[in-house]
Amino acid sequence: MTRTELAGLIDHSALRPDVTEADVLALCEEARRYGFCTVCINGRFVPLAAAALRDSAVRVCAVVGFPLGATTTRSKCQETAEAVAAGAHEIDMVLAVGALKAGQTELVRNEIAAVKAACNGAVLKVIIEACLLTDAEKVLACELARDAGADFVKTSTGFSKSGATTADVALMRRTVGTALGVKAAGGISTFEAALAMIAAGASRIGASSSVRMVSG
Question: Is 76 a catalytic residue?
């Protein structure tokens, strides 16, 4: 895979709490220049990014329930609906990690399904925060996301104990097969690391060091 081909698989991300409007506009310009798949941003910046990328092939991705996943289903659905109405094409939602670990599988499945409905056709990626889960819980999270109609499962927010690993990506890919995409995110900062994630089964990469990864 070339660096140009990799760029088309990257969600170019700026999710820090201190991100400014100027940062988001710079992110959008970089996404245009390098041909990234999306810009991944917090919801309040969706209107700005959507306007900046209106005549571009770059899509807008918004995070929901980020980064803890511990907000209510209603609030996640509201965040999703607002982001999609403002121009988001994709939603990265943090799964209710505590509910999953407590065995509340119906709650988790129903929440994902509700957010998918609120997407109104937008792509839904479910962040399982793999570093907080056992392998059995990772498998369960992926199965619930698949059964609830999600389009992708995603390894990490990048804000917890650790980020993506090739082992987690491979486990997630084995679980969902070809039915869903797998997004690797969190701590991926080099071209070689991104290629390793893709070799393990990732079909999308989330990164904030995207420019360095694709420009060599």
Answer: no
Annotated active-site residue 138? The verdict is: no
Q: What amino acid is encoded at 100 in this protein?
A: L
| Catalytic, out of 76, 151, 154, 168 | 154
User: What does the pLDDT read at residue 125?
Assistant: 99
Average pLDDT, the chain: 98
Catalytic residue among 76, 125, 138, 183: 183
Q: Is 90 exceeded by the pLDDT of residue 149?
A: yes
The one catalytic residue among 11, 76, 92, 138: 92
* Strand ranges in 45-187 using DSSP code E only, listed in sequence order: 59-64, 90-94, 123-127, 152-154, 181-185
Total residue length of the chain: 216
Contact residues for 187 (Cβ-Cβ < 8 A; gap 6+): 156, 158, 162, 163, 164, 193
The whole-angstrom separation of Cα 144 and Cα 150 is 9
Is residue 161 annotated as part of the catalytic site, yes or no? no
Q: Which residues contact 157 (CB under 8 A, 6 or more apart)?
A: 15, 63, 66, 67, 94, 127, 129, 185, 186
For residue 177, pLDDT over 90 is answered with yes
**Distance of alpha carbon 180 from alpha carbon 172, whole angstroms:** 10
Q: What pTM was estimated for this model as a whole?
A: 0.97
pLDDT at 216 over 90: no
Sketch out the chain's domains with CATH numbers: 3-215 (3.20.20.70)
Given this model, what pLDDT does residue 116 score? Answer: 98
pLDDT in tens, 24-33: 999 999 999 9
